[in-house]
Amino acid sequence: MTLPGPLNPPPRLLMGPGPIDADPRVLRAMSAPLVGQYDPFMTHAMNEVQELYRRVFVSSYQETLLVDSTARGAIEAALVSVLEPGDRVLVPVMGRFGHLLVEIAQRCGAEVHTVQIEWGQIAPYELIADAMAKVQPKLLAVVHGDTSTTVVQPFDGLAELCARYGTLLYADVTASIGGNEFLTEEWGVDIATGGLQKCLGGPSGSAPATFSPRAVGIINSRKSIEAGIRAEGDAVAAHPIRSNYFDMSMVFDYWSERRLNHHTEATTMLYAAREAARIVLEEGLEAFQARHLLHGRAMLAGVQGLGLEVFGDLEHKMTNIVGVVIPDGVDGEAVRGRMLQDFGIEIGTSFGPLQGKVWRIGTMGFNARQDAVLTTLAALEAVLRREGFGLPAGGGVDEAYRVYAEAAA
Amino acid sequence: MTLPGPLNPPPRLLMGPGPIDADPRVLRAMSAPLVGQYDPFMTHAMNEVQELYRRVFVSSYQETLLVDSTARGAIEAALVSVLEPGDRVLVPVMGRFGHLLVEIAQRCGAEVHTVQIEWGQIAPYELIADAMAKVQPKLLAVVHGDTSTTVVQPFDGLAELCARYGTLLYADVTASIGGNEFLTEEWGVDIATGGLQKCLGGPSGSAPATFSPRAVGIINSRKSIEAGIRAEGDAVAAHPIRSNYFDMSMVFDYWSERRLNHHTEATTMLYAAREAARIVLEEGLEAFQARHLLHGRAMLAGVQGLGLEVFGDLEHKMTNIVGVVIPDGVDGEAVRGRMLQDFGIEIGTSFGPLQGKVWRIGTMGFNARQDAVLTTLAALEAVLRREGFGLPAGGGVDEAYRVYAEAAA
Questions:
Q1: Which Gene3D superfamilies does the protein's record reference (chains A, B) (predicted)?
Q2: CA dist A78 to A29, A326, B203, Å?
Q3: DSSP codes of every residue in A262-314
Q4: Does the beta carbon of B198 lie under 8 angstroms from any beta carbon of chain A?
Q5: Could you give the strand order of the β-sheet that contains A321-325, starting from the edge strand earlier in sequence?
Q6: Which residues of chain B are within 8 Å of residue A80 when distances are taken between CB atoms?
Q7: Is A7 an interface residue toward B (CB < 8 Å)?
Q8: H or E element: which one contains A81?
Q9: Quick check: A71 and B264 CB within 8 A?
Q10: Does residue A146 sit at the B interface (CB-CB below 8 Å)?
Q11: Do you find a cis peptide bond into A19, omega within 30 degrees of 0?
Q12: Nearest CA of chain A to the CA of B32: how many Å?
């Protein structure tokens, strides 16, 4: 067999639900040389990353760090570190990623209760409150922004409910963090886990996470230091966390001044996470979110201007993604194929009950930009017309321009 | 708080047990733009990576792929996907990473039996055979090259033992793959997992792994597809794998033609893994290993030429690392500190019973080079002399030169 040649990806504009085009600054940061695991530069960079992500999460929690996996792994790290077999968990399921929380909690051996909501709607506070009273769970696990439905879940009142029942509050902010308001500490969230590949504009493979002192206390009470590096007096738990890799009590030690060896930190992904947070905070978190709101509104107006129906509860729409109902008689996959092959633009499909019924168009991170929005709308119009779908000429681009003009006025 | 500045790592020559300096080609590959998760370019690149790593593992196994974690995560992925609670596992423990296998298997709920060997020695075949007869385990888990002791474990006869007792054979090749001979399929190894940050010359954060059809059969018998994407007729196991992220049956589907969504592949780490394998295979796997052998021999001769004692069984020394006994009266950490701060060169310490007693000097991947070897020896001599340790002037460099001259003759 001959060897494949040098890497040469085709030019793409990634306007789906993520990954999106990484910010070129993040990609450049990833070609920086490595240093050793305990090099003063490395441990200093780890400390910087902690401080940067405290600001992204709006959290003063000491245990704010990176999990060396994709966003999904960080969800598991949070859940498996907290949950012992038999623990009760409550999950409002409003879309695919609620199902994922259920699935992961079940694999932790937890007793999982759900509030099932129609995809595209939020979970009403009253339903969650009723279920909390019944279940009185150890953990309430909530997806903040579920890209499968484009809806963002309000967290009002959840902290008070959790306080009432001694429940920990977990939030999956993979798809929302950075681009949608999320105040970890003010909202009383004990654990939040994210990902780089959405609004933060990096590649997937590293997952920022933040843990409240209360969560850390529960996790550390389960600590068990592995035999190969255990010192006299070190903890050996009776029922240790079921995972070694995702045992956050050991990961906390690794990120602490103690620097107890666990895995070998994924240095290049840490470089990426550091640069991604710097980009957010240079712009300013509020300005960064306002930019997501603006370009998300322009994209929404644009698809409506093309005469397309929008999916889901628009009052609770994520800033960074819109669901578009695939019109009757239009082959959704053919449209996505032409967009990609002929225009180099990726838009997304959806999952489960929405598969084949909804496209998902993202405006996030580096791609929350006017040129990306207008180009996507122009291409979508062109493709739909060639697919035989009648639509107002220029209606998408015009409506987006209108949003931009109003914002500038 | 002001923001930290752009990333600006100090120049380092990383001659420890890993991570080592990533090959600049790998770093450059990591700044390539992203593509979507199901872009034809991406799925083609995934297929290329599978074929490249089949050649690195010397394995025809279909299920050869990347685990999106550091090397430690891939060990856990292998063990948790195979082991059900109560399953018997046998682990020969010759160093720190044997302890790690024990620890991970225990967290899977397995009944773990060990053969305990003095650090620095191999596990003799007879001891393993006796234990296999007694335990008759589901899995024999063996570290191939343990950087904590610098020793490489022979696999002769292990496949036959495993066949006798219906045991799966797992090998942790994190530190050995590429730089030491390892013939996955010929040696009857069912599962091998590696890492990029040692001989393969990449950053940590992605872990190549290969699974035999027999291992795949056992893992797939435990398959349970998650609710959010489950189709009619899809598998729901009674005792699913305890992890979702490391459930290899789902990861196999993701890497198969079915492309069933699991995590979002860490694209940039995949780019790195692809380039790392291309570099190995361009040189040729045998030439790549011969290069590791040569520079490892030069480094060994060099430290001996400095009058230093070498740790461990030299007959079974890994090509890519040497253990150096810290001489009486020398402050090991002071020497490492001067090497790093004054010369920009990192050498390693060790763990457990060897902590403070042994330095570890690596010659691997991009750093298995004459200039790296000679520079390290010259710096080590200079530092030891300033620390007041008497040693033959130029003795290290001279001996290394002698090895190179003999090899060239």
A1: Aspartate Aminotransferase, domain 1 (3.90.1150.10), Type I PLP-dependent aspartate aminotransferase-like (Major domain) (3.40.640.10)
A2: 28, 36, 25
A3: -S---HHHHHHHHHHHHHHHHH-HHHHHHHHHHHHHHHHHHHHHTTPPEES-G
A4: no
A5: A310-311, A321-325, A358-362
A6: 243
A7: yes
A8: helix A71-82
A9: yes
A10: no
A11: yes
A12: 7
Q: Give the Cα separation of B226 and B228 in Å (integer).
A: 6
pLDDT in tens, chain B (409 residues): 689 999 999 999 999 999 999 999 999 999 999 999 999 999 999 999 999 999 999 999 999 999 999 999 999 999 999 999 999 999 999 999 999 999 999 999 999 999 999 999 999 999 999 999 999 999 999 999 999 999 999 999 999 999 999 999 999 999 999 999 999 999 999 999 999 999 999 999 999 999 999 999 999 999 887 666 667 777 666 678 999 999 999 999 999 999 988 999 999 999 999 999 999 999 999 999 999 999 999 999 999 999 999 999 999 999 999 999 999 999 999 999 999 999 999 999 988 899 999 999 999 999 999 999 999 999 999 999 999 998 999 999 999 999 999 999 9
Chain B residue with the nearest C-alpha to that of A229? B352
Counted residue by residue, chain B has a size of 409
Structure tokens, B244 = 């979702």
Distance CA A271, CA A277 (A): 10
Q: Which CATH number fits domain B285-408: 3.40.50.720, 3.90.1150.10, 3.40.50.300, 3.90.226.10?
A: 3.90.1150.10
The correct answer on CATH 3.30.70.580 for the domain covering A23-280 is no
Give the start-to-end residue ranges of the domains of chain A: 23-280, 285-408
Q: Which two tokens stand for residue B1?
A: 């708080």
Which residue in A205, A202, A318, A208 sits closest to A255, CA to CA? A208
A245 touches chain B (CB under 8 A): yes
Q: Which token pair is B341? A: 């701060």
Which 354-373 residues of chain A touch chain B by CB within 8 A?
none
DSSP for A85-111? TT-EEEEEESSHHHHHHHHHHHHTT-E
Q: Report the alpha-carbon distance of residue B49 to residue A248 in Å, rounded.
A: 31
Cα separation, A308 vs A87, whole angstroms:
45
Cα distance between residue A338 and residue B230, in whole Å? 28
Which residues in A lie closer than 8 A to residue B34 (C-beta atoms)?
A: 9, 12, 14, 19-22, 203
Relative to beta strand B63-67, strand B207-211 is antiparallel
Output the six-digit token pair for A316. 């609770």
Residue linked to tokens 């045991």: B167
Residue A64 at interface with chain B, using a CB cutoff of 8 Å: no
Tell me the one-letter amino acid at B26: V
Tally the residues of chain A: 409
Residue B400 CA: distances (Å) to CA of A43, B194, B334, B406: 34, 29, 25, 10
Q: In chain B, what residues touch A240 (CB-CB under 8 Å)?
A: 106-107
B112–A contact, CB cutoff 8 A: no
